[in-house]
Each structure stands twice: as C-alpha cells, then as structure tokens.
From TrEMBL:
The keyword Protein transport applies. It comes from Sander lucioperca (Pike-perch). The keyword DNA-binding does not apply. One of its GO terms (molecular function) is structural constituent of nuclear pore. This is Nuclear pore complex protein.
Length: 749
C-alpha cells in the first residue's frame, strides 16, 4: 500500500470506520432539524467540548489530545450527514468545514506523532523529506478511505465470478449457431485480446470494466491496494490482481537468515517500464492505476477531481522518484529504467516544488474561487512553514469578512498544540488569534469558556481582555462564577476587577470645574452602569480596600454634578464592615501602620458620608417657615453641615497621610469638590439660620469661614465671598431692627 509496505507502518493505519451514531440519533436529528441552522446547532457543542479536551490532556498527553479533537469532529460530521437530509445549505457548509477540519487534525497527527518508533528502511530513517512525504500520502489515503467506506462489498457487476462473462456467453452462442455477429467482438479471451485484435468486448462487459477500473482506482487512491486485488479476483480478473503486485521492492531474506519467502518483484524495472508504455493506450482509470504505482504524474492528474487528489498524486510520485533515485545511487537500478522519460529520471522533487506545481494547475474551482482555508493550512503544515502559516492567519484576521467560527476554534487549538511542543511561533499573531476567539466566545455568550483561553494571552493583555468581557456580564447571578473561573485559570482577578471599574467610571469624563449648578441631576443609564460596576470589587473581601478607593472615585464625580442620589446608591453598595475588614486584613500579618493610600481612602469615605448625611434636609431652607419641628430640624442640619465644614484632623476631603503614592488627578478632584461643595453648604446653612431667625448664629458662621485654623475662606471665590458678606449684612440689619447691635448683642446705653 506504500513504498515501505510492511516495513513502514503509517501512524494513521488501523483506523476503523465504525459508526458514530447511538440509538438516540434519530430523536436528536429530529429536534435539530427544527432549528433555523441545524448544522450549526449540532456543532455548537464543539466549543465547550474542545475546552474540556484541552483541560483534560496535559502536555505529556498531547497526541491523545489530537486524537480526541479528531473524534469530536468526526462525530459532528456524522450528525451533519443525517441532518443534510433536509438539504439545508447552512448545514452543508458546516458539514464541509468540519470535514476539512477533521482532515487537518489527522494531518497534524500524522506529521507530529512518533513515527520514528517504527522500524523503517534506511532511506526513511535517514531522509526526513521522504519520510514526511510518505506521511502525507498516508494521510490523504486515510481521508479517501473514510469517504469510500465499504462500497466495494456492495458493488454489483453484470458478470459475477467469470471474467468477461457476457462476451464468453456471446462467443458460445456464435459457436453453436455458426452465425456472425452484427458487431464484431473479440474471438479470444486472454487479457491482451482486446488490444491485440483491436476488437471490443460485449457492451455489458465494457460497462463492467469501466466501473471496475474506476472503483479499483478509488481503492488505490485510498491506499487499499490489497482490497483492490481482492476485488479483481472476485470479478474473475486474477491476472489484473497480479499486475498490481509489480511495484513492490524486491528483497531476498535468505542471504542473511533461515529459509523465508522472497518478497517483492525481481523484475520491477520491466514492470515499471511497461506501466509507462501502457499509459499511452489504456482506459483513463486504468492508466491512472498503473501510473500511481509507477510514478507517472500526468495520467494520474487526469483523473484527479479535488485538491486532495492532486496533492496525493504529486506526493505519491515524489516518493516514487526519491526511492528510485536512491536505488540508482546505490547501484541497484534496473537496466529497463533507462527507457523511462528523461523528465522522470531527472526530476528533482521537493515539497516546495509540489505546491508550486499545484498552484500552476489552475484548479480554479478549488484553489482560486473558494480559497479553502484548510487546504492552505494543510499546505503550510506539510511544508513545516509555521511562519508562513501564521502570516496567513494574520491576513485572514484582517479581512473584512469574519472567519467561520469553527475555523477560528481550529486555529486557536492548533496554535495551542504547537505551543505545547515548544515550537517558536509569531507571538503577535498568536495573540490576535486568541483575542479573536475570545471575542467569538463572548459574542456567543460562551461564558464558561472565556477564562481558560484568556489565560493563554500575555498577562497584561489577558487582564484587558477579561475586563472587557466582564463589562458585558450584566446578570448579577453569574458574576461570582466568572470571577471563580478567572481564579481557576490563574488570571489576576484583582487587576481585572480594578480595570473593569476604572474603565466604566472613566467614561463620559466629568469636568471638575466651578459652576453655579444647584439643581439635583437625574440618574442616567450610564450612571446606573457606574453604580452597578462596583459590585465586581465586592465579591472577594480581599478587594475591599480597592472597592473603597473606586467607589470614592465614582462618588466624587457624582457629587461634582449634584447627582446626590447616584452618589448615595454607590455609597450604599459598600459594606458597612469595609473599614474594619481593611484593618483586619492588614493587621493579620503586618506590624506597620495601614498603607497611606488605604488610610486616606477610609478618611475620604467618611468625608463623603458626612456630606451625604445632610442631604435629606436639603429642602429645609424653603420649608422651614412651615415646619412645626423647625428648631429640632435646624439643630440637626446645623450639626451635620458643621460636621462637614469642620471635619476633624485637617478638613473635609483633605488627606491626613501625605506619604502616599502621588495621584494628581485625585488631589485635583478633592480640591475641586471642596470649592464646589463647601460654599454650597455654607450658603445652605446660612439660609436655614436666617429663615429660622437665628441671625446671631448666622453671623458666627463668618468667624468660622474666616478662621485661620480652618481656612475655609480659601475655597470661596471672590464672588462667593461678596455674596456671603451681603447675606451677613441682612442678618445684621435684622438684628438692628430688634434693637440689638449688628453682631446681635444688646446695645450699651
């Protein structure tokens, strides 16, 4: 079946054609046929199944992994055969793609499996090119074997066990009747009679021969030479079976061992020369049969119908040529070989030349129009040109037309296989392929699969990719699982969740500028996203310090634009025990004080809490005249506002620890909030006090604002200070109207 016959065993030999289908196939097929795209529905499980296989097999079991990839594809090809009964065009497309992927996995298995374990001839041991070329032939024959199945057992011929039975019957009738035929037939039935007499066989025998020869070629194309010989014998053509033996290399084992049968054909040179001469006379399939066994490319290509057929023909001839050259160089060539054409004897075949020839064949239907991706992949794999392969991958990814999802899955697992072998690959392309596959999984909501493939990316890229994925996860109930999968895959969950929150909160950048806006702003859809995103930092208590920092940053922006309800919503998400949790985590293994960043974040959180506490009294200024609890409410709001204005240990939104990492943006925002919020609170408190006729207390507010201890005057603009003084003038005039001095004290007489 190949040049090394029993001495060289193909790594793909022994594969059976057992059925893939269980008893439940009919029910499953019926359900799938109800889908808009039943083929895609049937193949959808390949995505989680490939991941399961990848996780299951370690790098030491990489070849078992390849076998499992093949099996998974074969199963889906089998299902799609059943589903094609509905003639769904999409299903046919998926069937073709998976069939090609199965073939490519088989090629990878052939070329990268441990073929050196097999004892081969010295040539195959020494020459990697011929060894690899034979592997390609074996691979292509195994594909063809899958396609033809057991058809040879079911072929019906007009003649049964007798060669040219119908012609024989006609000759017997003529002998009995003594009459001549209207159409002259051969008068003898030896194998050469039709050529020697230049007369035809009976019509039914000619049809039988034509079908037999086509089927014999199909068997030889599938590497089933022995099966072809059995078919010849079954049809009464044992002589033809004998002619298919002539290609085998001659070997006499009795020179070095005990008496054993002689192998091969001692007159192989004569047989080969005859095959070349016969190629000018025989039926096209008969020519192809003997050409495939004797290295004659042109008649062989005449019957090739597919890309695989053409590749097989070229590599079959290449192996034949290399073996013959080796025999010639060793002085074992037959004299008859000199009669073969010069182009055969002087051919200098290489794998690169094979594919140049294939390109020149102008197989437009196969190579030009469809640009079948797997054929291109197979070409580069055969050549061992991984750089060229990954350049193709890069080109495919940059085209406007999206790649088929199953092709992208294959590309991903192929590069992971090459990585497991320690092969040098184009890292940029690897990253692009993995990112494209991750995007596909995210798009198709294959949530459980994303983390494992993201973990194959460089750490910085992995953090960005998984953070982008988490942004799309809107169902709160599956968020913990997404983080657990990330942890299991070895991703930096802390960096990822931080990036998710930062990315969302930095959208629609709020300007921290001084403005006169006083109305409460409504909560928008984007605001809700910013409120919701903080949840990512709350699943793991170890991230509590980061959740405090990020929630502070979100609330700063909400406060800047008077979105107090939104700020409160963020504040309410932070667990009440956060500060205690942060201190506990730090004190568990540390003797030093809390990091400056964490301590400042805690203080900022308390500052924001103090500010939000007065908000429920924000309408007090307008309602105070009607409230029966005016005094109580006034005291309460006064206390809460003073808690902000006179915030302990340095002031509201001012860090205590100055030894933290520089964060100019944060410091700018905190300073801006002081300028925005403190004057606002001051005017509110002033209005409350004046509306409740507490003018003397209103005037004391001036002492606090002007105090060098608190330096609150620094956060007021000149215009605000002018307005503040005008408001105080109103209180002084009111006190004068009561008979008191401008500061509220009794006049001295």
């Amino acid at each position: 079946h190949d040049w090394t016959n029993s001495m060289y065993i193909s790594p793909v030999s022994g594969m059976d054609n057992s059925s893939f289908f269980s008893d439940d196939t009919a029910n499953l097929s019926s359900a799938l046929l109800k889908e808009d795209d039943p083929g895609e529905a049937a193949a959808a499980s390949l995505f989680p199944e490939f991941l399961a296989s990848l996780v299951k097999h370690s790098s030491s079991a990489v070849f078992e992994l390849l076998d499992e990839y093949q099996t998974l594809c074969q199963e889906k090809v089998g299902f799609s055969v059943v589903l094609r009964a509905g003639q769904n065009s999409k299903t046919a497309g998926v069937h073709w793609l998976l069939q090609q992927e199965n073939c490519t996995w088989r090629l990878i298995t052939s070329l990268y499996s441990e073929s050196e374990k097999v004892v081969v001839e010295q040539l195959f041991q020494r020459d990697a090119v011929i060894r690899q070329s034979q592997l390609v032939v074996d691979w292509l024959e195994s594909i063809a074997k899958d396609k033809i199945g057991d058809f040879s057992d079911n072929i019906e011929y007009y003649a049964k066990n007798v060669c040219w039975e119908n012609t024989l019957h006609s000759l017997k009738l003529r002998r009995k009747s003594g009459t001549a035929f209207t159409v002259p037939l051969v008068t003898e039935l030896d194998p050469d009679a039709p050529f020697r007499q230049q007369r035809p066989l009976a019509d039914l025998d000619r049809e039988d021969d034509a079908r037999l020869l086509k089927n014999l070629f199909s068997l030889i194309r599938a590497g089933m030479t022995e099966e072809a010989q059995r078919l010849c014998k079954r049809c009464g053509q044992a002589w033809r079976a004998a002619t298919l033996e002539g290609w085998k290399l001659y070997h006499d084992p009795n020179r070095t061992s005990e008496l054993q049968p002689i192998e091969g054909n001692p007159q192989r040179g004569i047989w080969k020369a005859c095959c070349w001469r016969m190629a000018e006379e025989l039926n096209r399939y008969e020519r192809a049969i003997y050409s495939s066994l004797s290295g004659n490319l042109k008649p062989l290509l005449a019957v090739c119908e597919s890309w695989e057929d053409c590749v097989w023909a070229h590599f079959k001839v290449m192996v034949d040529s290399l073996v013959e050259k080796e025999l010639m160089s060793s002085g074992m060539a037959h004299q008859e070989m000199d009669t073969l054409p010069r182009e055969y004897l002087e051919a200098n075949w290489t794998m690169e030349k094979v594919f140049e020839e294939l390109q020149a064949l102008e197989l437009k239907r196969v190579l030009e129009e469809t640009k079948e991706h797997h054929h291109i992949i197979q070409k580069f794999v055969i050549l061992g040109d991984l750089d060229g392969l990954f350049e193709e991958f890069s080109d495919w990814l940059t085209t406007s037309k999206p790649l088929p999802s199953h092709l992208l899955r294959f590309m991903t697992h192929l590069l992971l296989f090459f990585r497991s072998l320690g092969l040098a690959l184009k890292e940029e392309v690897c990253v692009d392929v993995l990112k494209a596959y991750v995007s596909l999984l995210v798009r198709d909501q294959q949530t459980d699969l994303v983390a494992r493939y993201v973990s194959q990316l460089p750490p910085e890229v992995a953090t960005v990719e998984y953070a982008a994925f988490l942004e799309t996860v809107n169902q709160p109930e599956i968020r913990p699982r997404c983080l657990q999968l990330a942890t299991d895959a070895g991703l930096d969950v802390a960096a990822i969740t931080k990036l998710v929150v930062e990315t969302v909160r930095e959208r629609d950048e709020t300007e921290f500028t001084h403005h006169s806006q006083t109305l409460e702003m409504g909560t928008t859809k984007e605001d809700l996203r910013k409120i919701d995103v903080i949840d990512w930092l709350l699943f793991d208590p170890a991230h509590r310090a980061e959740s405090l920092k990020q929630s502070n940053a979100i609330m700063r922006k909400f406060l800047a634009v008077q979105k107090h309800d939104a700020a409160k919503a963020v504040f309410s998400k932070v667990p009440e025990d956060s500060m205690r949790e942060i201190y506990c985590q730090w004190s568990g293994g540390q003797t030093t004080s809390l990091p400056a960043e964490d301590e400042n974040a805690i203080r900022e959180h308390l500052c924001i809490r103090a500010y939000l506490c007065w908000k429920k009294y924000s309408n007090l200024a307008s309602l105070s005249a009607w409230s029966c609890r005016l005094d109580v409410l006034t005291e309460d709001v006064k206390e809460r506002i003073y808690n902000v204005l006179l915030f302990v240990d340095g002031g509201w939104m001012i860090d205590n620890r100055q030894d933290s990492e520089p964060d100019s943006e944060r410091r700018h925002q905190m300073a801006a909030l002081r300028s925005l919020c403190l004057p606002r609170l001051t005017f509110l408190l002033l209005s409350v006090l004046q509306n409740s006729s507490r003018h003397q207390e209103a005037l004391r507010l001036a002492d606090i604002i002007s105090s060098d201890q608190h330096r609150l005057y620094q956060v007021f603009s000149k215009e605000e200070l002018r307005r503040f003084l005008l408001k105080l003038r109103e209180s002084s005039l009111a006190l004068l109207d009561r008979g008191l001095d401008p500061l509220g004290y009794e006049l001295q007489t």
